[in-house]
């Protein structure tokens, strides 16, 4: 077990695609990932795989004026970022993958 992995000092951080730019296969160490991104949301028991995930919501509002009055609506978009890194037996990144997806929640009308 890596010292500090379960420590309260290493709380997960919000991750974005930019958060993973420092990760380089064959160069970046597990400790560097922990220091930069905090405790992973998921780690395998042997701590050879770390996964981080963040959801960031944003709301777009719209008001449409008609001869009958105003119609207001809003739509929330959730941007999800997932970073998964695998480490070799020496604790160096063997592979890393970043995925970003967006999804819209149903429109709300007032």
Give a structural overview.
By secondary structure, the chain is mostly beta strands. It has one domain (17-109). The chain has one helix and five strands. Strands 1, 2, 3, 4 and 5 form a five-stranded antiparallel beta sheet that branches. The longest helix has 8 residues, at 30-37.
Task: Please name the defining characteristics of this protein.
five-stranded antiparallel sheet; single chain; disordered N terminus; 48% strand; rod-shaped; mainly beta; 110 residues
Fold blueprint:
Blueprint: H1 30-37, E1 42-43, E2 49-66, E3 69-87, E4 93-104, E5 108-109
Antiparallel strand pairs: 1-2, 2-3, 3-4, 3-5
Could you write a compact summary of the structure shown?
7% of the residues lie in helices and 48% in strands.
How would a textbook summarize the main sheet? 5 strands, antiparallel
Tell how many strands the DSSP assignment holds: 5
Element-level helix/strand string: HEEEEE
Beta-strand content estimate = over 45%
- The share of residues in helices is under 10%
What overall geometry do the principal axes of the alpha carbons give?
A: rod-shaped
The stretches of 5 or more residues where confidence is low (pLDDT under 50) are 1-9
Mean pLDDT: 81
* DSSP helical segment count: 1
- Count of folded domains: 1
